[in-house]
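idk why but the lab printer keeps eating my pages so im just putting this in chat instead. protein + S-adenosylmethionine:
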Amino acid sequence: MTDAVASAWDRAAEGWSRNTPAVHAWLRQATAAMLAQARLQAGARVLDLAAGAGDQTRDIAQAVGPTGAVLATDISPKILDFARRNIEEAGLTNVRFAVADAQQPVHEQASFDAVMCRLGLMLCMNPAAALAAAFDALRPGGRYVALVFGDPANNPCIATMMKVARKHRGLEGSNSPYVDGGLFSLAAPGRLASLLIEAGYAEVTVESIAAPFELPDAAAYVDFVRSSGSPIIEILAPLDAPAREAAWRDIEEALQRFGSPSGWCGPNELLLGSATRPA
Ligand SMILES: C[S@@+](CC[C@H](N)C(=O)[O-])C[C@H]1O[C@@H](n2cnc3c(N)ncnc32)[C@H](O)[C@@H]1O
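predcted complex ->
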């Protein structure tokens, strides 16, 4: 299963990296809130899990400065190659990279001041294992922060895409939105907080953050998802090319409702979970 996830993100790696400016703008405020909750100081050591193409890695590396150190890990070797390149281009020299599954124990135990994960934890089939691994990687008193998608009702673009894509695959009605490893796996009320508490963390908070995705039109959003939205791409992958094109056309049509004369704005709700490894 993790091999399939890694291969799927390998395929979406170039797209996610190419869309870094759009992702950066979309998640600017949520990322700032994540950094604030991590309570980063200059010189801090940070583990950035499911780092993707390194957009938040760059912010973290800048926040901890040249005396700090970031270890960026991801299950997809290809996306991590893009992260390495993007961080190099940004002129940052305080980041190391390692291919790793966030659900597996980290080699460097009890050694990070903060463990961060932006839009990766919900993709783990076993989030409890991921939270336990992060707990062990933190020094006592260290901070854990993760951003995940909130409730489907508050993420109508993703919910719509999933619904239309599943309909085209003939899968409608057969799955709860909260399925393990899915985009909404941690969206159910209280789920993220319970998992953090069960993993032994203290000072657990979960806050809702609005992260509207603003683009010129629905077509631009569909272009983004087609090239980088691995979970939706993978639902449609088994279809033949004409059937897949028909599905993307229906998705775009359904997303037109978020357009207005001033542009396109897709609502998104993220949950920011924050916690401390007790001293
Ligand atoms: C939506 S992208 C987010 C990337 C980056 N954190 C960002 O916000 O731009 C999800 C990332 O999670 C990674 N991922 C998925 N499952 C993972 C796992 N079990 N362990 C580590 N990384 C994983 C994917 O390879 C992908 O890079």
